[in-house]
Amino acid sequence: MSAPTLPAGEDFAPPSTSGERLFQPVRLGRYDLPHRIVMAPLTRSRARQPGNLPTTLNACYYAQRASAALIISEATQVSMQGQGYAWTPGIHSREQIEGWRLVSDAVHEAGGLIFLQLWHVGRISHPCLQPDGMLPVAPSAIKPSGNAFIENEKGEGELVPFVRPRALQSEEMPYLVRQYERGARNALEAGVDGVEIHAANGYLLDQFIESGTNRRTDDYGGRIQNRARLLMEVTEAVSTIWEPDRVGVRISPLGTFNDMGDADAEATFGYIADRLSDYRLAYLHVINPAAAAVEKRTEPDPGALHMLRLMRERYRSRLILAGGFDHETAEAWLNQGSADLIAFGRKFLANPDLPERFRLRASLNADDASTYYGGGAKGYTDYPSLAQQRGEEPPPCVDDRWR
Ligand SMILES: Cc1cc2nc3c(=O)[nH]c(=O)nc-3n(C[C@H](O)[C@H](O)[C@H](O)COP(=O)(O)O)c2cc1C
């Protein structure tokens, strides 16, 4: 499997001979990071009910993973309307701010850095997750195929078909921006180190960006300048609360998850990368359209490689790439200049000490997909570190200050 060849330039420097590029320090916005291994955002549906509150258990999970150069939190709804899955945490109530404070304190105590991912799901929801059982909202009233993950009457997780969402009215747009703005302000109060705006994977901002889900005829639909307007307004609003060097944006060009598609993805995402460069953000986080090939170690689709090159050329600052990487492929892709940092999802989920395991070339715990969403400590905080595998006691994860 080959990594894409990219032009030479300051950000495309060859690796030092003194060690692996994955372990070279890097500046990311305001922060000096000791290496380039990022923990990708991972929804785990373990917030306390009622109220979708982060808890000491969540604090423990993140603190265990504090050796990441940067943790990006699970997607966190900015409003009740922004929720699309059972038991995901929010950042719109006082109690949620206090819950996130437990998490940020625990991560900082363990020496880590954490950005909170700001989320509005748009149409990827269900009336039973919405305030007053209302319809989920979207740029256009187009029903996604697939199922929503809800809590049933027995208190268990259940998949139910998506419904046709309600198209947002033009007058509602400022209200959406305010939801993100309030989430950003609350995140600041919760003591995290920055925020990532979730504009990927077919959620609200992506639904506006991509032509397949946006049939609007107002200032938020039609040409790309309009479809990108909400993302730019949100980025601008969030960047007035946080300095831009503590703000990142996540996108998923060519992604098909959640029934997504765009008639001209190159024009769309090229424009977005270009425009976002102007904000001088900490980073752009791209979900690798070649993830499946990277994972299988097969030749990536030329279209995916082309898109990656385009992102690198058009985004003029730090790029994080996520999707399908292991130690070896991450190193190869960094060396090719495809990105500045690599985010790991499932591997970080199952290996709290992933950087150390990479450094020592130790074997990895396998992730258990049956415990991804919902439940408690099992499949969450009980993946052992190398030290535990050697027989050492686990660190006292939760202490009184985090209760
Ligand atoms: C259980 C699970 C939950 C995820 N939750 C989120 C999320 O909350 N926000 C997000 O942007 N991506 C989410 N993703 C996508 C991951 O961040 C990442 O892009 C994906 O897992 C590919 O990386 P990997 O091959 O290293 O696992 C999730 C993925 C998994 C497996």
Features:
TIM Barrel; alpha/beta; 403 residues; binds flavin mononucleotide
* Uncertain regions spanning at least 5 consecutive residues: 5-17, 399-403
- Give the end-to-end Cα distance, rounded to a whole number of Å: 47 Å
How many helices? The count is 13
Mean pLDDT: 94
Broad structural category = alpha/beta
Query: What's the number of structural domains?
Result: 1
Ligand kinds: flavin mononucleotide
> Largest sheet, if any?
8 strands, parallel, barrel
The count of β-strands is 14
The H-level CATH homologous superfamily, spelled out, is Aldolase class I
- Rg measurement, Å: 20 Å
CATH architecture: Alpha-Beta Barrel
Query: Strand content of the residues, in percent?
Result: 5-15%
Percentage of helical residues? Answer: 25-40%
* CATH class placement: Alpha Beta
Strands in their spatial order, largest beta sheet: 3-4-5-10-11-12-13-14
CATH topology (level 3) name: TIM Barrel
Order of helices and strands: EEEHEHEEEEEHEHHHEHEHHEHEHHH
Set down the secondary structure blueprint.
Blueprint: E1 26-28, E2 31-33, E3 37-39, H1 56-64, E4 70-77, H2 94-109, E5 114-119, E6 137-138, E7 147-151, E8 157-161, E9 166-167, H3 173-189, E10 194-198, H4 204-209, H5 224-227, H6 229-241, E11 247-251, H7 265-277, E12 283-287, H8 291-296, H9 302-314, E13 319-322, H10 327-335, E14 341-344, H11 346-350, H12 354-360, H13 386-389
Parallel strand pairs: 3-4, 3-14, 4-5, 5-10, 6-9, 10-11, 11-12, 12-13, 13-14
Antiparallel strand pairs: 1-2, 7-8
Helix pairs in contact: 1-2, 3-6, 7-9
The structure holds flavin mononucleotide.
